[in-house]
Amino acid sequence: MSESGEAGGFKSLLATTNWIALVLVVLVIVFMVQNSHDANLTFLWVTVRWPLWLAIGIVLVLSFAAGFLFRGRRDKRRRSRR
């Protein structure tokens, strides 16, 4: 019995979406390391000079947060329909 539980856990760990997510994270990290020079960033009326890797990292974190928040809303709507 425990073997099937372990196999199911291992199989779900190696799901295609997990591999795609892992590859994307590695690609973003490589992109961040390669773009280490400073860049002028303008948001509304504020201009700052930051390392490009830091700006990419901030956008990545904000994107994950937005995706997490919107996914939670979608899950609630799906549950309420049932």
From TrEMBL:
Q: Does the keyword Transmembrane apply?
A: yes
User: Keywords for this entry?
Assistant: Membrane, Transmembrane, Transmembrane helix
* Entry's transmembrane regions: 12-32, 52-72
The protein here is known as LapA family protein
